[in-house]
Write a structure and sequence with these properties.
Layout lengths: L3 E5 L5 H10 L6 E4 L1 H17 L3 E8 L3 H11 L6 E5 L4 H17 L6 E5 L7 H6 L7 H14 L4 E3 L5 H8 L4 E4 L18 H6 L4 E4 L1 H4 L4 H13 L1
Parallel strand pairs: 1-2, 1-8, 2-3, 3-4, 4-5, 5-6, 6-7, 7-8
Helix pairs in contact: 1-2, 3-4, 6-7
Bound molecules: orotidine-5'-monophosphate.
Pathway: Pyrimidine metabolism; UMP biosynthesis via de novo pathway; UMP from orotate: step 2/2
Pfam family, one: OMPdecase
Protein name: Orotidine 5'-phosphate decarboxylase
Length: 236
């Protein structure tokens, strides 16, 4: 599968997000609605995206007890989303409850099941975090692959990880296990608060299924040009 792009719509209001989607309309068809935009204008924004034929990744990173996360995941199906995420740290019972309840509900109501994705280690974190939290893994890579194994066993479709970890994930869990990779930074963009970063061109060579990219496009004075440059890098 070629590497596809998901643009992170991290905006404080509907009009800014909608203007960007309109601006990028013929280049990007997959968008991420995360905490900021969901809290400020989630329902309206998702409706706008879906009525314009776009795909939606609902990124609320659920991290709670199994019953709460499974109920929230089922409730999110009313938005006709294409991808949904939880934190793998929430546990294998939480993830397997989510996957079985979502699967049963979608089968029963003949709905297309959204991709179920678990966040492994946030791309804003590095080895210092493992030490600080006394996590007994040798490296971020080992930790991420271990969480990805648990995620797959729990019936999920893939993980959020850094592109740096994609080869190891694919080698261990197979090529069909999806990798969704934020922390993407073209050489010309600022790193901001990201730590485990990779350029779009490297991400594509590493076999990422989806790259998630926000500020290099959303904070650019010429977002369309920025998106075009990134797409060119992916297809090089
Ligand atoms: O789940 C995510 O999407 C996510 C996980 C992660 O480990 N790192 C990460 O940056 N993200 C999200 O990906 C987006 C990255 O945005 P930029 O750093 O602006 O490109 C943000 O919306 C983050 O919330």
């Amino acid at each position: 599968m070629d590497t596809k792009i998901i643009v992170a719509l991290d905006f404080p209001d509907f009009s800014k997000a909608a203007d960007l989607v309109t601006n990028l309309s013929d280049t990007v068809d997959f968008y991420k609605v995360g905490l900021e935009s969901f809290i400020s204008c989630g329902e309206k924004l998702i409706h706008f995206l879906k009525s314009n034929g776009k795909k939606v990744f609902l990124d609320l990173k659920f991290h709670d007890i199994p019953n709460t996360v499974a109920s929230a995941s089922l409730a999110s199906l009313k938005y006709d989303i294409d991808m949904l995420n939880v934190h793998a740290q929430g546990g294998s019972i939480m993830m397997s409850t989510v996957s079985s309840e979502i699967e049963n509900y979608c089968d029963k109501h003949s709905l297309q099941k959204p991709y179920l994705i678990a966040v492994t280690l946030l791309t804003s974190l590095n080895e210092t975090h493992l030490r600080e939290y006394k996590i007994n893994a040798k490296s971020t890579l080992e930790y991420v692959v271990d969480l990805a194994k648990i995620t797959q066993k729990s019936g999920f479709d893939g993980v959020v990880a850094s592109a740096r970890e994609v080869s190891a994930i694919k080698n261990t869990l197979g090529n069909d296990f999806l990798t969704v990779t934020p922390g993407i930074r073209p050489a010309w963009a600022a790193k901001n608060d990201q730590q485990r970063v990779v350029t779009p061109s490297e991400a594509s060579k590493l076999g990422c299924d989806y790259i998630v990219i926000g500020r290099p496009i959303t904070a650019s004075s010429k977002p369309y040009k920025a998106a075009e440059k990134i797409l060119e890098e992916l297809n090089d």
